[in-house]
Amino acid sequence: MAFTRLRTLRRRERTVVRSGRGKAAVAVATLAVAAAALSACSSYSDQVHASGEFVDMVRPAIAVTDDGGKPLGKDAIGVQPGKPIVVKATEGALTGVNIPKANGTPVKGELSDDGSTWTSSEPLGYDKRYTLQAEAIGVGGKTTTSQSFTTQAPSNLTQAYILPGKGETVGIAQTAGVRFDEAIPNRKAAQDAIKITNTPKVDGAFYWISDREVRWRPEHFFKPGTKV
Fold first, then answer.
1. Residue 92 lies in a domain
2. With bands split at pLDDT 50, 70 and 90, how would you rate the model's confidence at 145?
3. Pairing mode, if any, of strands 76-79 and 141-151?
4. Does one domain contain both 27 and 95?
5. Is there a single domain that holds both residue 142 and residue 164?
6. Residue 195's domain is classified under what CATH number?
7. Residues 188-223: tens digit of each pLDDT
8. Parent domain of 12
9. pLDDT at 33 over 60
10. Rounded distance between C-alpha atoms, residue 92 and residue 204, angstroms
């Protein structure tokens, strides 16, 4: 409606130039139309700012997934405890994420530089129920979410021993290893559950020396002072 009125105003302005008659009356009419048009624009703008639909469009949304991007539904069961939980906000930034453990302490996680994504950095427990709470804020206001999930209950748990031991000083060619207390039928699953980090970063690969022990060898010798 406002656009139509603005076009009418232009036609009347051209009439004033052509006729040269009744200029004062036409000018008054033109001002009246202009005032009506401006009033319509102001009214329309107020309606947009007050619209609940507009606010909903820019209200932050929070999504919870695994590290592969698969949505983590409410009351999900069988969640892999060794895989990170990812919380992502769109149209806003996360202001808080909390996954309390049984003792009340929160699961550790890292927030991205832009504040939009939080990723858990410690493994969850087996056969445990967690309740995740997250909050995000943006132009459209604040959004909160809460959802529970239960981790996988394995049919069997094996004990693992890390080699070399914690805090040991070793040579630059030393391999890292894990020894299990029983034979491992699914070697790939065992390797996927092991995470090797080092500073400065060095790539490497796994190899098995028996059905109970896997080793990780660096592609190149470690630099002196490397932490693994």
1. yes
2. very high
3. parallel
4. no
5. no
6. 2.60.40.3710
7. 989 988 889 999 999 999 999 999 999 999 999 999
8. 2-50
9. no
10. 38
Same domain, 29 and 72: no
Secondary structure class of 213 (helix, strand, coil): strand
Q: Are residues 141 and 69 both part of a single domain?
A: yes
- Of 217, 123, 205, nearest to 173 (Cα)? 217
Q: Is 226 within a domain? A: no
Q: What is the dihedral of CA 117, 121, 123, 129, to 10 degrees?
A: -40
Same domain, 127 and 68: yes
Element (H, E) at 76: strand 76-79
* Tokens representing residue 167 in the block: 């805090």
178's CB contacts (< 8 A; 6+ apart) are 160, 161, 162, 163, 190, 194, 213, 214
pLDDT in tens, 13-22: 343 444 444 4
Per-residue CA distances from 202 to 93, 172, 173, 195, 219 (Å): 33, 12, 12, 13, 7
Query: At 154, is the pLDDT very low, low, confident or very high (cuts 50, 70, 90)?
Result: confident
